[in-house]
Design brief:
Elements: H1 2-22, H2 27-35, E1 43-49, E2 58-65, H3 70-76, E3 82-83, H4 88-94, E4 97-98, E5 103-104, E6 123-129, E7 151-158, E8 163-170
Antiparallel strand pairs: 1-2, 2-8, 3-6, 4-5, 6-7, 7-8
Length: 171
Amino acid sequence: MRKRILPSVIGILILCLLTACHGRRSLQEKIADACGVDISSGVIVTSSDSHGGFHGDGQLFASVNFSDNRIAEELSEDAAWHPLPLSKTLTTLVYGMQTADSQTGPYLKAANGAALFPEIQHGYYYFRDRQSEQPADRHDDTSILDRYSFNFTIVIYDTDTNTLYYAELDT
């Protein structure tokens, strides 16, 4: 009886160890998977992640710098990426919108309340609404500000600085 239990226990331990190691991906792999672009030639300059806790709410932000602008050609040919400027809704999410009577956003912000993304004039952006259940609506931002919670990814590539900015917000 003892001879049968020991191999089973060892097998279960090995399986648990392999499962735990398999789930870990680098931040670069996560970004590449999320926006469909190979960013392995880039270097992560900054990153922060406040996700955690029971519900997994939080914000992930990273900037990836490239030594040249080769990635811009790839983005210009990818239908999921769009040339700047951002839509009014995405501008509100990323930078905030101010009128004479009110201030809305930014929703992606640093601890001091300032926008995480720098002002970017030239480049491309990718948006994915991870809360949408319909595949056709995953890149549609028109009604996102009418919700009580957000689960989206936005990526902006700055062609002037060869920098890709990546953010996820989950509330």
